[in-house]
Amino acid sequence: MALPRITSPHATGTNRTQRVMLLVLAATLPGVVVLTWLYGAGTLINLLWASALALGFEAAILKMRQRPVQFFLRDGSAVVTAVLLALALPPYSPWWLTLIAVGSAIVFGKQLYGGLGQNPFNPAMVGYVVVLVSFPLEMTSWPFPHAVGLLDGIQHIFGLAPLADGWSHATALDVLKTNKSLTLDELWQNRAFGHFGGIGAEVVNLAFLAGGLFLLSKRMFTWHAPAGMLAALAVMSLLFWNGSGSDTNGSPLFHLLSGATMLGAFFIVTDPVSGATSNRGRLIFGIGVGILVYVIRAWGGYPDGVAFAVLLMNLAAPTIDYYTRPRTYGHRKAERGFKLGE
User: Fold this and answer.
1) The model's pTM
2) What is the pLDDT of residues 238-263, one digit of tens each?
3) Backbone dihedral region for residue 289 (phi beyond 0: left; psi -120 to 50: alpha; all else: beta)
4) Which of 37, 51, 198, 218 is buried deepest, with most CB atoms within 10 A?
5) Which residues is 168 bridged to in the sheet?
6) Per DSSP, what are the bridge partners of residue 143?
7) Flavoprotein among the record's keywords (predicted)?
8) 135 pLDDT more than 60
9) Nearest-angstrom CA–CA distance, 338 and 222
10) 10 Å Cβ neighbour count for 339?
């Protein structure tokens, strides 16, 4: 009898890998719609360009490894990595920036370790960190919300037309980190700030929250990791919230609705491969990510910190699994004073 060939994570029935990836892609649609509404065609161009690059890199590496190309491309994992990475990159990122990010994600974050199910780090976050460290200016400059047509977007991305002066700006997290003199009330007058989490960012985060709740309702993951991350981030920002003066670190609502918070909580920390495996382990994993996100935002050298926090906790995931292994079914917990042979 021939056994079915299913890529890891080894899910059967209605939760096969391909279906899981399709549901994840569907859950990103609210965020894609909002980003397109705010910034025009740049997000869509980034998505198409990143997806094409991911499929190309994946096929090339599989060919080099002498693995069946079509079989592994059909599972959809490469496209999901590309989509999550493209959504994290600023709209209208230069074509070469996306190429480097996607190439790093697929080659060094995924295929270097053997492919889906064997990567210790989240591939999308690997690609994101590579370009964030290498090209900080391009990675922290987002356009002001305004509609840009498809043709203009292609010209911007592929360098066929220069960007207009004043077309891009620093994110709200970046403005808050570099601010030394303005109060929070004065910062709200900056065009980078919206009502709570930065202009545009707050609506985008709510859209990703909606997509994440959709995945949660479909039981694609448990609540532990996202709840742990969001709760830890909220508690940390509440404990260290020092008012609205010039030295403020931002309110809990600001941190929850800024940057890549909701994208990270529902689409990154829920990765079943690079995260913890038990429910208790997932909760600890999410709490660790939330704490590190705030520490990096408030006292680190980067304005957001979601990617760095996830990668650091990916390193800790095996240790978390070791200490949170569930009790073997049918066995009781070991009692103090238990001796071998009793």
Assistant:
1) 0.85
2) 998 876 655 677 788 888 988 899 99
3) alpha
4) 198
5) 143
6) 168
7) yes
8) yes
9) 35
10) 5
